[in-house]
Amino acid sequence: MSETDSPEVRSRRLGRGARLVAIGVAVAFLAVGVVAVVGVSKWWNVRGISSARELALRGVAARGDDRTSAVVLGAAAVAAHPDKLNRSALGETLLSGRRGVAAPAGAIRAMALSDDGRTALMSIVDQGVTWRSLDSPIQEEVPLKLGLDEEALEASIEEEGRKREAPFVASIPLEGEARATALEVSSDGRQAVIGALDGSLGLWQLDDSARPVRVAKVPGQNSFMVASVALAPDGRTVLAGYERGSVLLWDLSSGKQLATLPGHSSWIGGVALSDDGRVAVTISRGSGYIWNLADRRSPVRVGAIPRTGVDGEGLDLSADGRTAMIGGQLWNLSDPARPKLVNPVAKEVDGVSLSSDGQVALTTDGAGSATLWRIADPARPVKVAEVAGVGELDMDYLTMYDVKESPGSAMVSGDGGTVLAVSAEGGALFMDVAGLSGDPLRDACAEIAEDSTAGLVSMRERLAGGSFVEPCDGG
Q1: pTM attached to this predicted model
Q2: Of 234, 311, 428, 455, which residue is most buried, by most CB within 10 angstroms?
Q3: Which is nearest to 251 in space by CA: 211, 203, 204, 284?
Q4: For 75, phi and psi rounded to 5 degrees?
């Protein structure tokens, strides 16, 4: 009998086989367990996303009726699942409570905003130029209602009285066929310069809100339309860009042309002046230049900004003249002879606006939105907010000039705290954007902290059967 046939050998073989079968079964069960755990994890994750999305949708639905609930629900959605959609919805909820009406329905042709964000100038088709304070929104007409009892009638009269105390809206008359195409407001909101379709320029004093006064006028030059204007701090010197490429410097107090800034040959997309009036930037479709205006009768071109291949339009300059936003690109002009591209903040924009300190920028994309950026670190611009529902400036009257660009339809004030924008529904709106950090959850929690925490308690009760994630520490 061989060793292989011995009972001991056969027993050892059977033992090894049993152990291998046991190990195989254990591995199989382990694999099934892993799959089950992964499946359950994915199920819970999907369930969490679904619950967060439900919170976000409830927050959107509550915007018009209960702002506190809208903010809390949106914040809870982001705390539960901070994806782009939930964050965007919360950001829009925060903005919805910070906006007001700047101008009633009407096609907007041009806009301007004072540095402090309190004075706006708007050219409205068939209505002329409107000037108003943005301290609070325009209240809609509240007609007195007849047939009410005494108490209701008193309430109606009180409501009508509040309407009449709304900020004054003044219209600045334009003579003849002139139509405003370019506007600029002084830093303090007390002066305005208006460029018109017939090429004329007017300087207005806005000290008396009931009686705006035109203090100077320059007739149209060869009927070339004014495309862009900038007002120097002396309150009388104006830099004007025209539709055929001319850039002229005017003393409006005397009505005399001081100088020509040559070099452009097409539509002037923007002109800008530093606060001391010594630095100017001008851009057209194919070129951009930096000027020294220390001697206003002999401007010196000190630098050029390449425009080849640029897919954005618009120009704005910081107060010190050292930072320029041009077509979505941020430029350092500390050495005007060698301007440096710091960062392409945004692409394919049709308008830009820059705060006085150069640390807040606004870009419009022509697709119905405007984006607010904080650029304290120019290498890493932070998206603070995205404003939806932005319309376009009225450009129908420019088809005869073959103007294909759509000028920017939103701007930020010099202090970076107010946005003025054309509304997609007609008219214009303004938004208080001061204090927004770019983190909607942080901004929402700061707002919630100012309100009663009772809102959070009632929210839990209303969400019976669902999941609620505490959005803020200590809430």
Answers
A1: 0.79
A2: 428
A3: 203
A4: -65, -40
Judge residue 239's burial from the number of C-beta atoms within 10 Å of its C-beta, 0-12 exposed, 13-18 middle, 19 or more buried. buried
Q: What is the pLDDT of residues 304-356, one digit of tens each?
A: 998 766 667 899 999 999 999 998 899 999 999 999 999 888 877 888 999 99
Task: Provide the β-strand partners of residue 229.
Answer: 240
> CB within 8 A of 66, min separation 6: which ones?
none
CB distance 268 to 403 below 8 Å? no
Per-residue pLDDT tens over the stretch 217-265:
998 866 688 999 999 999 999 999 998 889 999 999 899 999 999 999 8
Strand ranges inside 125-255, DSSP E: 128-133, 169-172, 180-185, 191-196, 201-205, 213-218, 226-231, 237-242, 247-251
Q: Which residue has the higher pLDDT, 458 or 471?
A: 471
User: Residue with structure tokens 């009269």?
Assistant: 157
Tokens 């150069």 identify what position? 358
* Whether pLDDT at 188 is above 80: yes
The top-scoring range by mean pLDDT among 137-141, 381-385, 470-474 is: 381-385
More confident residue, 48 or 366: 366
3-state helix, strand, coil in the chain (%, to 5): 25, 30, 45
DSSP string across 65-134: T-HHHHHHHHHHHHHH---HHHHHHHHHHHHHTSEEEEE-SS-EEEEEE-TTS-EEEEEETTTEEEEEE-
**Counting beta carbons within 10 angstroms of the beta carbon of residue 16, is it exposed (0 to 12), middle (13 to 18) or buried (19 or more)?**
exposed
Cα–Cα distance between 314 and 163 in angstroms, integer? 37
Q: Residue 458, Cβ neighbours under 10 Å: how many?
A: 14
What whole-number distance in Å separates Cα of residue 245 and Cα of residue 355? 27
List Cβ neighbours of 389 (8 Å cut-off, separation of 6 or more).
368, 369, 423, 424, 425
